[in-house]
Amino acid sequence: MAVRKIIRIDEEKCDGCGQCVPACAEGAIQVIDGKARLVSETYCDGLGACLGECPQDAIRIEGRQAEEFDPAAVAIHLAGLSAKEKKPQSAIREFVAHQEHSGCPGATSREISREPVAASDPGTDARPAAVSRLSNWPVQLHLAPVQAPFFNGADILIAADCAPFAFADFHEKFIAGKKLLIGCPKLDDSSAYVDKLTQILALNDIRSIEIAFMEVPCCFGLVSLVKQALDNCGSDIPLKLAKIGIRGELQQRHETRSERRFVVA
User: Fold this and answer.
1) Class in CATH terms, 2-70
2) Rounded to 5 degrees, what are φ and ψ at 92?
């Protein structure tokens, strides 16, 4: 464990008033046996939003060895509090907004409306012009907000960066009807991907997930990190896997069951 800033609660001064509890956006403090207590070090970001709420001056910030702050664990914790205590979702939204510091206008969450695609005329050999089936922005996993409205009730496609370039009809065969997230398990920070996906899965009503990955061995890491995120939040969301060859062919399209065995879809 590294030395970092974290709160300490003086139990002798604390009278259990509970004013510090709602001040903590991460839900790190609860009143237990008449005293305010730090539930878990991983929930405390050490910024001290609770300090000014204590009338007994029982909370202070100190530098000491402590477990690292874990945003993914906080998201799961808050989702559990929301279900267990009927806590307003506003607390979760406030935490999410606090964590997303991108500030880039191009990363603003938006849903894209699409007109129905016209069918080709059976009396001609002409093919209709290709159209985009993308219906959400942003698509890069690092930039995606963890609680965008378009995630609720969505079928999600998680694709390796290379997959759309290799598979010619990617929009029609994969993106149509799904919300897209992309990433590269070899070049990007996989642990950050796991944290982000864990939050997305914990805070949204995701209907299904499909992973489109390339046949090269390193690309299967995308499957591993998605499964880790599912395990982190105890989710049994239906999961389908699609392996694309470097020549552009669809080699396999599988769905997994709860026992994690592959079954041809």
Assistant:
1) alpha beta
2) -70, -40
Of 79, 68, 86, 98, the C-alpha closest to 27 is: 79
144 and 138 Cβ atoms separated by less than 8 Å:
yes
Domain boundaries, the chain: 2-70, 131-264
pLDDT in tens, 132-183: 999 999 999 988 888 888 998 999 999 999 999 999 999 999 999 999 999 9
Classified by CATH at the fold level, domain 131-264 comes out as Rossmann fold (3.40.50)
